[in-house]
Design a protein that fits this description.
With 364 residues, the protein is of the alpha/beta class. The chain folds into two domains: 185 residues, Rossmann fold (3-Layer(aba) Sandwich), CATH 3.40.50; 157 residues, Rossmann fold (3-Layer(aba) Sandwich). The chain has 16 helices and 13 strands. The strands form two sheets. The protein has a seven-stranded parallel sheet with strand order 3-2-1-4-5-6-7, sandwiched between helices. α1 crosses α7. The structure holds uridine-diphosphate-N-acetylglucosamine (UD1) and uridine-5'-diphosphate. Uridine-diphosphate-N-acetylglucosamine binds next to α1, α5 and α11.
Length: 364
């Protein structure tokens, strides 16, 4: 079976690491990896290929940044070309980015079966570009690999045939387990940043719903500054956020207790997450990783696709509106708390094998 895997953005490289490894273990599986080039800074792309032993992409389409229509359209045309040049039995896409949607559309138009990994997530907020991408991708897909029961339920409610849906767990959990030891051995980030275990807050911000609204972005910056007056904060800054701060002329000033750094590699990120006393984020992946490492998390959004984290008490939504010092006081209360223990909604760390088994059975 020959699969075309399409990746393009940071979280997709991380997710693909687990599946690529599992595919390599099955002799009859052949993977052709295409990078759309949606993310291209070395700290947003190359570092993950190097650290996570992901095969070098067979093609990089070099699409780069752009408005949604332009970026997705360019990907669609380039991916169609790839599909015309090579016969594939299936196309694998991950998550909810523009690369995901372009891959699903290109494949389904060429009548190549689409496998969507991380299917069924919903925020029910159609203003989010990710929500449109994931709904359309799910409905174009032939096999939907849902990480959670809630994701399965969402797909069923939308009328997707039950035999297309497989609850497989979360590939990000596989990767988190696989690289935990390597991170402990290799990462020097805590020393480099002079951080003490459980005595700092880790923050990440990049969602369009926050970065593209100057009031929200300014509130988040003031919120993080306020936190840093209580406990050191470290913020690996996403390039989208860096750009938005410039465009909206919002000052983000580092201090001794507020470190603003370049995006870090995955191994350093694991160590920052594990050792933080609190994580403040709007990232989908980081919310879950907080849970994997049992670190309380506040999510600066109005809703989350990972509702089970909220239900289990590990994650609290904080809308990025209001008085920043009040928001900070709310967030600080979660330090030292924990949610329900002993619940594993994301599978057993063998999600990639589960997925490859589904593929082997479907395409045998
Ligand atoms: C994309 C995904 C989002 C995902 C995120 C992961 C879409 C619509 N959004 O958001 O779902 O959570 O990736 O990180 O697909 N830029 C750089 N260097 C890079 C990449 C981006 O400078 O390597 C800057 C550019 O100014 C670009 C901006 O970041 O315009 C946004 O990049 P883009 O890929 O369009 O969206 P993300 O915000 O990264
Ligand atoms: N991540 C990383 N370095 C960073 C920030 C995030 O390695 O500086 C990892 C993080 O651990 C998680 C993934 O990137 O595995 C999440 O990606 P991101 O937040 O960009 O996107 P989302 O998950 O929100 O789509």
């Amino acid at each position: 079976m020959k699969c075309l895997t399409i990746v393009g953005a940071r979280p997709q490289f991380i997710k693909a690491a687990s599946i690529s490894r599992a595919l390599l273990e099955v002799p009859e599986m052949e993977e052709y990896l295409v990078h759309t080039g949606q993310h291209y800074d070395p700290s947003m792309s190359d570092i993950f290929f190097a650290e996570l032993d992901i095969p070098k992409p067979d093609r990089n389409l070099g699409i780069g940044s752009g408005l949604h229509g332009l970026q997705t359209g360019r990907m669609l045309a380039a991916l169609e070309d790839v599909l015309l040049q090579h016969p594939f039995d299936a196309v694998i896409v991950y998550g909810d980015t523009n690369s995901t949607l372009a891959g699903a559309l290109a494949a389904t138009k060429r009548h190549v079966p689409v496998i969507h990994i991380e299917a069924g997530l919903r925020s029910f907020n159609r203003q989010m570009p990710e929500e449109i991408n994931r709904v359309l991708t799910d409905h174009a897909s032939d096999l939907l690999m849902a990480p959670t029961q809630l994701a399965v339920d969402n797909l069923r409610h939308e009328g997707i045939a039950p035999d297309k849906i497989h609850r497989v767990g979360d590939v990000m959990y596989d990767v988190a387990l696989y690289y935990a030891e390597k991170a402990e051995q290799q990462s020097q980030i805590l020393n480099h940043l002079n951080l003490q275990a459980k005595q700092f807050i880790l923050a990440t911000i990049h969602r369009a719903e926050n970065t593209d609204h100057p009031e929200r972005l300014a509130t988040i910056v003031a919120f993080l500054s306020e936190l840093s007056r209580n406990i050191p904060v470290v913020l690996p800054l996403h390039p989208r956020t860096r750009q938005a701060l410039q465009i909206h002329n919002i000052e983000l000033a580092p201090t001794a207790s507020f470190q603003i750094i370049e995006p870090v590699g995955y191994l350093d990120m694991i160590m920052l997450e594990k050792n933080a006393c609190l994580i403040a984020t709007d990232s989908g992946g980081v919310q879950k990783e907080a849970f994997f490492y049992q670190v309380p998390c506040v999510t600066l959004r109005d809703e989350t696709e990972w509702q089970e984290l909220v239900d289990l008490g590990w994650n609290t939504l904080i809308t990025a509106q209001g008085v920043p010092s009040d928001l900070a006081q709310t967030a600080l209360k979660f330090i030292g708390t924990s949610g329900t223990l002993g619940q594993y909604p994301y599978g057993n760390g063998k999600s990639a094998h589960h997925i490859v088994n589904v593929l082997t059975n479907a395409f045998a």
